[in-house]
Amino acid sequence: MRWMDLSWAQAKNSLQETAVGLLPVGSVENHGPHLPLATDLYTAQRVAEATSQLGDWPLLPTVPVGVSEHHRQFPGTLWVPPMVLKAYVESIARAAASHGVRRMVFVNGHGGNTSALDMAARVLRDEGIYCYIFEWWVAIAELLAATCCIPHDHAGEMEASMILSIYPDLVDTTRYDEAAAPGVTTWGIRRNGVSVAFDTIDFTPTGVVGDPSAASAEKGKQFTDASANNLHEFCTWLSAQS
Ligand SMILES: [Zn+2]
Q1: Cα of 126 to ligand 1 centre, how many Å?
Q2: How far apart are the C-alpha atoms of 216 and 208, rounded to whole Å?
Q3: pLDDT in tens, 11-59
Q4: From the CA of 219, how far away is ligand 1's center (Å)?
Q5: How confident is the model at residue 111 (pLDDT cuts 50, 70, 90)?
Q6: Is residue 33 within 8 Å of 172, Cβ to Cβ?
Q7: What angle do CA 10, 26, 44 make, to 5 degrees?
Q8: Does 194 score more than 80 pLDDT?
Q9: Per-residue CA distances from 222 to 23, 102, 218 (Å)
């Protein structure tokens, strides 16, 4: 069920105490020269939509812009401070709870959002509102490891596959060569175990970690389906808790 398409009369009847709201949280940031800035927004939204269809879980409107200041050197990147994202999702969760939906999953599409969402979830828990963070690339880590050369890439095979399956027209496959970042296989730089990179551009000039050349829409569909199945199972469990 799509929250934003309900009338208030329908919402009054549909939003049950056992419902688990799905709140997609995205980002608008560098995803290389070949993928749209809203890659994380689209992937989070698609996984949440697919999950909502499996269990009729209420799908809330997507929070589009996240914590992406570390991509600021790449044109088009937008960001909000972590405390703004925290306050915003907390407020949405409180509003949903006022209508009886006190269980929610933040369907996160961007790793930079995680700590702000985690802080929000901890504050909300003390108010009797139970929010959990679902990150599709974490939930299907085994499948990704078996499928992709670099499972947790940024704008590489994993994310390019997702966008090929959602909005293929937004992928510029002619720029794959330019996008591939040779030798960049992990996020960040570490010296003696200490993270020393503040911005993405410090370790990847193209903004990419990994190589999109083996991406395919079939893989993206597989990732979405596996993620949605996982999240649907989690929501079923959460819904049954007293
Ligand atoms: Zn991304």
Answers
A1: 31
A2: 17
A3: 999 998 889 999 999 999 999 999 999 999 999 999 999 999 999 999 9
A4: 16
A5: very high
A6: yes
A7: 65
A8: yes
A9: 22, 31, 6
